[in-house]
Every structure is written in C-alpha cells, then in structure tokens.
Amino acid sequence: MQGRLLRVNLSTREIGVEGIPEQYLRDYLGGSGLAAKYLYDEIPAGSSALGEENKLFFSIGPLNGGYFPTSGRYNVSCRSPLTGLWLDSSSSGKFGYYMGRAGYMAIIIEGQSDQPVYLYINNDTVEIKDAASIWGKTISESIQLIEKESQVKGSAAAIGPSGEKLVPMACIINDGGRAAGRGGAGAVMGSKKLKAVFVSGDRKFEAADPDAWRKVIRELTGKVVEHPLTNSLKTYGTGVAMGLATQSGDAPTKNWQLGNWEGYGKISGMTMASTMLRQHSPECHVCPIQCARYVEIEEGPYAMKGSGPEYETLGSFGSMLLNDDLESIAYMNLLCNEYGIDTISSGSSIAFAMEAYEKGMLSQEDLNGIDLTWGNTEAVLAVLRLILNQEGIGKLLGQGVKKAAQVIGQGSEEFAIHVKGMELPMHDPRAFFGFGPTYATSPRGGCHCHGYLGAFEGRNPIPEAGINEIQDRHATSGKGILAKAVQDVSTAVHSAIVCIFTFYSLSASDLARAINAATGFSYTGEDILKIGERIFNLQRAFNSRFGSSGADDTLPPRVLSSTIGGPVEGLVPNLEEQLQEYYQARGWDSAGKPSQAKLEDLGLDYVIGELYG
Predict the structure, then answer these.
(1) How far apart are CA 31 and CA 55, in angstroms?
(2) What is the pTM of this model?
(3) 377: Cβ contacts below 8 Å, ≥ 6 apart
(4) Residues 213-246 pLDDT 10s
(5) Are strands 106-110 and 155-158 parallel, antiparallel or unpaired?
(6) Helix (H, G, I), strand (E, B) or coil at 18
(7) Angstrom distances, CA of residue 271 to CA of 300, 314, 325
(8) To 5 degrees, how large is the angle CA 558–CA 562–CA 565?
(9) By the number of CB atoms within 10 A of the CB, which of 327, 363, 365, 604 ranks highest?
(10) Looking at the predicted structure, is the pLDDT value of residue 344 above 90?
(11) Three-state secondary structure along 548-583?
(12) Residues with Cβ within 8 Å of residue 443, at least 6 apart in sequence
C-alpha cells in the first residue's frame, strides 16, 4: 500500500510529501474514509465552502494502481458549496490508476491561487503550472492541451466554465466523460483557480502477499464477469433500468409526480444500443462490467459524438421533464460534460422551473422568453444553456432547487425535491422503501451512492450484518436495519475505492480478502462493515460542525405522498418508523445524535468533545 500524501498549498506554492500514519490506513482504508479523517481535523467550523480554508482531498484506496476489477476510480472530498455539508464524490476512468502509479494515496490541495493554474504530477515531479491559456475553455479542449504539453501517458481531472464561474453544482470530469459529479467539487476547484490535476507515473503496484493477490483477483473478477447483471450492463449500460421503469416504478417522472409514462422505452439503454451506440475502448481501468456508453449522432440539431448518457441523466433530462427525445438527452449530456456540471442537479432544477412556470410562479419574461412547458425539448436546451453560461434565470437555477425555491417562494418549496440541499437522484423511495432512510440520513444529502440499495434490496442479503434473507422492497419493518448495513458497506466500498456495481456480485467478505492480500492486514467482512460505520459516523460529526442535525433527516413531502398512477401508486414509505428503527440500529439517540458509547466503540473519542460540548 502506498501510504504517501502529497500536500499542495496554492497560496504559498509550497509542495510537500507526508507519510500517512498506518493507523489511519487501518481505521479508514483510503478514499472517502481517509478524507473524512483529514478534513474533519483540518477544515474549521465557520469556514466558507468557496473560501481559502476549504480543502480538496483527492484520494484512492488500497486496491488502486493494480488490477483489481474497477480499480481505476478516485474520490474527491471537500465541504460542499451546494449543501454546506460533507461532500465526497467518486469517479471512474483511469485517474485513480495513474494516481497509484505516481505513488500517492492522497493529494490535499489547500489555499487559493491568485491566477489560473493546473497541477502536474509525474512520480516525484510535482509542479504548479500556468493555466491562463486554458482558463475558459471546455473540458475536452483543456485536457487535450494539458496532455499535449505533458507528453507523458496519464490522466487529467479538470473543470469547465461552470466550475470557473463557481456554480454550486459544478463537477470534475476526467477520461472522456467520467465525472466526480455531485455536490459542487468543481466549484471548489474554481474557487482555487485550479483548472486541472494531471497525474502520471510508473511505480508498480506491490501487494503484501503476491500469491494471495493473484488468486483473489482471478476469483473475484470471475464472480463479477459471471453475474447476469454484468452482461446486461455491458450490453445496454445503466440505461437498462429506464427500460424496466414501467414495471419497477423507479424512474421519477414529471418532477416526481407521475408513476408511469409512455416515453420510458424511447430513452432506454436498449433504444440507445439500437440507434446511436458505437464501439469504444473501455474508459474505465480494468473494468469487466464496461457499462460506459460511447454514442454518435451523425446529423441534425443534436449531432455529436462522445460519452453517452447514464441512467441518471436519462431520468433527469428525460422522464423528469417528459422529454422522450433520446438524441437531445445525449446532446445535453455532452454539454454538461464539456462545461462540467452535474446532470442530476441541473435536470432537476429545470424540472422545478417547469413546474413553477406551469403554476404561474415563473413567467415567460422571467425565463428570458422561453416557453418552458413539459416535454418542450428546445426549451429545456435553452434553459440548460442559461445555467451553463450563468445568464438570466440560469444564475438562480444553477444554485440548486433549495435556494431557487427560497427566492421564488409562493409555495414552490413543496416541489423543490432535495434532501439537505442536494437534489434527489433518479431512484424513487416509493419503489424501493429502503431509499427512504438512506436518502434522509446520507451525509452528502440526497444520494443513492452512500446507501446503494440497488445491489441489495430485493436482491442480495448481507450476512456480515446479520441480514440473511432478501427483503421485500415494500415492507416497512427492517428497512432501518437494512439502510444502516447498506450504508456501512457502501461507505467502505467508497474508501476501498472500487465501483459499487461490483457489489451486485461481491460481498464485504470478498472485499476483506482483497484488502488483506494487498496490505497484509487481517480484516473479516464484519471488520469492513465496522470501518464503514466508523467513517459514516465521522462524516455525521463533520456535518454537525456545520449546523446539520437529525431535524434535517427528512424527505420532501411529495416523495412521501403517492404517485399518480403507475405500479407503486398508493405505496408510500413510513419514514418516521424507518428512522426510529435506523437510529436504534446505529446506536444514535431518538434525535439522530450518535451516542458517546457508540463513538467510543468506533474509536471516535476525539469527536465527543465537539458533539457534546
């Protein structure tokens, strides 16, 4: 394991390398967990998300840099400008692989440059380089110029104009459209005048037990490849879920109002495969799943070629807006990738504006003359351009639905669909009740990645957590216990750091075996869950520092009322019952505060003073 941390101060231009204490690696693994430890210790209360005291923490885990399946990923963490709370955002591609090859498990970027720069890393050579010539350019243009200047094989993670303009939903893009997408890490990069981070290296991955490592790689890769969902994702991408939405009720429709829509099939992964999908080289390092899409539209108003839309984007720019034009969605996905902005939050903000326009809370004059009616593809594209360029109503919508509703008022808060300021992803808690407590308690706000129910609810048990039976997705009892277990697994995966999709076929015990072979540690599957629990509680403590409490563990009223029609009509999660079961399973009090005994059990004694005074 590479236990090195690179610290770069953009204000003073100081660059240094530190050793990461082994106890940190044992207790937090890497990735999101290691970030939680460092950022809890180093970001003070009262600091601004876009100020000098916020820090960007790029990190990988013990499995990155080698050939573990899906180990090209990396994590970036900071205080979110969208929510004001904890943010970790994970991206695939090759950046994590090259970061490992450069010999760094973590990169802390602090301070603020007074002029545009990018960070160049090639093994032990680390330079802060001038980026004035690429400031203002799109992400693909910027990366091409950086790669040309670098003249070595590597990977760049960059921001576009949206990050430069400090849009709170701006993201970081690498490797042909892979995104650290949610919560505004791109705006934090923009606040530091940091255009990109380029990494390259030639260090070899060295496992503590090479024989055990080779064996576990073979076995676990085989399990991933043989799983039936792997073949489905490889053939149709994540958009396969949109094709199944009529049966599951999972895809939110018309800003979370409808339970069914005739357009699902027109924008599904199956339709994409039969119309615009092209052969492509795998964008993600050693990934046997290969769900990434490469699409081409040869002519017409949406002519483009590049990374294709994932399920989340098909939902946010498709079903949420009643837009069944797949070509337009692919084109808007390309624009978001080039400008560097989260497709979930931007599509959700447009859906919010559509409903506000329908209800007379926004006028056509407010919308720069745009007739923003449901399904009006040209209008959607026009508003998206306003958000990307921060013009007119786009300045407000780019702040997210929570802030937009505060400005518009008139009861618009009722259909501003978010948790803690982050727009919900495209999975409906009325279709899978377990999403209720996971969304409500996620440390970064509305988020399915911090509790990836898709791999577990109605599908796989979690024996390491004592959950030995597959749960009915519409049962209420047991959902708090399930949510806690899934969050602990997901948090450990984001700290390991590998793709959550591998956990359709792998388990916490499988992850423990791989980490043991790589590091020489001796974890069990139960240990992995406890590490996830430790990290989750630390992220909760971080949020408490910035004013969040159990009172914020809630869902929008619309999501707690029935859909209009569809397979889940009349089915609504009982969030209050779920949360009390969840708090009890977590060892938190009835107000959602971690008990001192639980914090001591997890080795988090050092946060007790701040939480309890």
Answers:
(1) 15
(2) 0.97
(3) 323, 325, 328
(4) 999 999 999 999 999 999 999 999 999 999 998 8
(5) unpaired
(6) strand
(7) 18, 12, 11
(8) 125
(9) 604
(10) yes
(11) CCHHHCCCCHHHHCCCECCCCCCCCCCHHHHHHHHH
(12) 85, 86, 450, 536, 539, 540, 542, 543
Question: In which element (H, E) is residue 260 found?
Answer: none
Contact at 8 Å (CB) between 70 and 289? Answer: yes
Q: What is the pLDDT of residues 31-50, one digit of tens each?
A: 999 999 999 999 999 999 99
Structure tokens at 319: 């079903």
The helix (H) or strand (E) run that includes residue 132 is none
Buried b (16+ CB within 10 A) or exposed e, 192-208: bbbbbbbbbbeeebebe
- Would you tell me the crossing angle of helices 210-226 and 508-519 to the nearest 10 degrees? 150
Cβ partners under 8 Å of residue 212, min gap 6: 513, 516, 517
Domain spans, the chain? 4-200, 237-408, 435-554+574-612
CA 423 – CA 403 distance, rounded (Å): 11
The class of domain 237-408 in CATH terms is mainly alpha
Interacting residues of 529 by C-beta distance below 8 A, sequence separation 6+: 464, 465, 485, 488, 489, 492, 508
The token duo for 239 is 């958009």
Q: How many CA atoms lie within 13 A of 608 on its CB side?
A: 12
CATH no. for 4-200:
3.60.9.10
User: Which residue in 340, 237, 230 sits closest to 292, CA to CA?
Assistant: 237
Rounded to a whole number, what is the largest CA-CA distance in the chain?
68
Strands (E), 171-256: 172-174, 178-180, 194-200
- Per CATH, domain 435-554+574-612 is 1.10.599.10: yes
Q: What is the DSSP string of 481-528?
A: HHHHHHHHHHHHHHHHT--GGGGGT--HHHHHHHHHHHH-----HHHH
Is-cis flag, bond preceding 500, omega within 30?
no
